[in-house]
Design goal:
Length: 319
Amino acid sequence: MNQRAGRTCRPAGPKRLPDPRVVATEIQGPEDVVADAEGRIFTGSADGTLWRLTLSDTGVGRAVAVARTGGRPLGLEPTPDGRLLVCDAQRGLLRVDPQDGTVGVLANKLGGESLRFCSNVAAAADGTIYFSVSSRRYGLEDWMGDILEHTGTGQLLRLRPGGEPEVLLDGLQFANGVALAEDESFVVVAENGAYRLCRLRLTGPQAGRYDRLVSDLPGFPDNISRGRDGVFWVALAGPRERGIEVLHRTTPKVRKAVWHGVKPFPVRVMALRSDGALVCDLRRAGSPYRMVTSVCRSDAFLIMGSLTERGVAVCEVDG
């Protein structure tokens, strides 16, 4: 893969994230949160339930269960027809109708092998779907093992309407969040284990070129959502740790021996322009809501989800 260095993310310092309100505490482990065109929030829970939340003017949310995947839903993407694309860590890439709860499998194999650990998804206007596989060695239950062992088995896949999944990028370090540029000229994928966001050009004279949109992030980038004005919102699931980088230079046996002891982290989210320039960097130290794995913006609110926490965190932001 041909890569250029891209922007290095060295912000002057994070600003304080407003106090979040935790709503819909009946939802356990809302790993990804997304907003549809009407401002409704969708998320999935550890028991396989998909939920729809409607926020009031004060940020208080009411949650309704709309479907069950029969697996473990992670990344979500609303589509213009009112349905949802769902990356399920156990079942593959799904399409769900939240009106009647219908669940259909779009892809669960690649080259005859079961898709393992589908993570996040984005859809183009022509129906083409881009989605990530975090690891071909570990499942969701052992995700930290892949980060610390630095396996580099993540992938970015494409599924065209009526086609079969095809590999666009391979050898990624724990591929995670996926988002399309507003003009669909490129797709961004988060390499969680390499602290960077990578870009694959889809149109124009540089189509097929792969480079780094942002390098040297201060933490592990997880899910990505595209907000207004084409801004990418990125959740950092944990801070960059010198000890983890040292582990990457040790033997696989040593890395495997220590990864079970790693704990969740505080809240940090960032917004970036389509050229990688930093818009804002928000952090909340000491928050009881930890390990934020997703963030999206809906009107005046930032909505955050977590692989490990109960409920969805909501805070009001300016601008």
